[in-house]
Amino acid sequence: MKKILLIAAMAVLSLGSLMAQNTFKGTITYSVTSTGETAFTVPEQMATAELKVYDDKVLTSSMVFTNSPMINSILIDGHKQFACWDLSMIFMYLSQNDVELDYKGSSKILAKTELTQSNIDSLTIPCTEGFYIEYVAGETKTIAGISAKKAILHVFDDESTDHPIVIWYSDEMGPDVNLLFNGVKGIGLEYSTDLGEGRQLTLTATEVKKGKVKEVDMLLPSGYETISDEEFKALFKQIQEEMQYLQED
User: Fold this and answer.
1) How far apart are the first and last CA of the chain?
2) What pTM did the predictor assign?
3) What distance in Å separates the CA atoms of residue 22 and residue 55, rounded to the nearest whole number?
4) What is the SS3 assignment for the chain?
5) Confidence band, pLDDT 50/70/90 cuts, at residue 15
């Protein structure tokens, strides 16, 4: 009897887990504005941003999320991130300067990152270096028609000084750990990014359009060669070293 009850309990837990999975499908559009002490004109290609969401998958090609003109698209799939890098211009520059890289593959690379359970567990542990996330209970506000909850991303500099960033998020859409938002639950609907020298960008969701996103819409572009996280880190380290050497030469 105990065995039957245990199996039944496990089945209920599994069902609860399945039911708890976010099933939101849609598109979220953001406006990007200059909000720091030093005002500046936001480049046209960064003035708006867009996320496609399908259950726990999130896809974007907006530069404000990719943070680099060399990244064409980023896909978050649960606890995994896939980034499409186009390093053709860097490869060409290094080749023209007679630099031979250890990596011999394509310049169009699909780099994969996956969070371990240890990574996930550490996200909310208070610290004085790196960063951690504090979820604030009882504070909400409505953004683009969605009730958003408050979280504080505590970011520490080399002197262990905290530079907190407020993130308003919804945990009713997207993955339970979102690498696009430093591991915050679900989807960030409003937050700011410090660019230094008094400059700051604030992203605010202006429209949440439900539906019209299918699983096929979450596919990354083709033509990219998949390499391991270790291979990608080794490649990037060599590129940085060679670029620094060329600049000093």
Assistant:
1) 77
2) 0.86
3) 5
4) CHHHHHHHHHHHHHHHHHHHCCCCEEEEEEEEEECCCCCCCCCHHHCEEEEEEECCEEEECCHHHHCCCCEEEEEEECCEEEEEEECHHHHHHHHHCCCCCCCCCCCEEEEEEECCHHHHHHCCCCCCCCEEEEEEEEEEEEECCEEEEEEEEEEECCCCCECCEEEEEECCCCCCCEHHHCCECCEEEEEEEEEECCEEEEEEEEEEEECCCCHHHHCCCCCCEEECHHHHHHHHHHHHHHHHHHHHC
5) very low
What's the pLDDT band for 1 if we cut at 50, 70, 90? very low
**Pairing state of beta strands 80-86 and 57-60?**
unpaired
- Residue 80's DSSP bridge partners are 77, 114
Please compute, for residue 225, the number of CA atoms within 13 A of its CA located in the half-sphere on the CB side.
Answer: 12
Per-residue pLDDT for 16 more than 70?
Answer: no
CB-based burial of residue 171 (10 Å sphere; 0-12 exposed, 13-18 middle, 19+ buried)? middle
Q: Calculate the CA 118 to chain-centre distance.
A: 18
Q: At what angle do helices 88-96 and 229-248 cross, to 10 degrees?
A: 40
> Both tokens of residue 190?
């409003």
Q: Supply the pLDDT for residue 4.
A: 35
Distances (CA, A) of 23 to 132, 184, 213, 236: 27, 18, 12, 36
- Taking only Cα atoms into account, the Rg of the chain, rounded to an integer number of angstroms, comes to 21
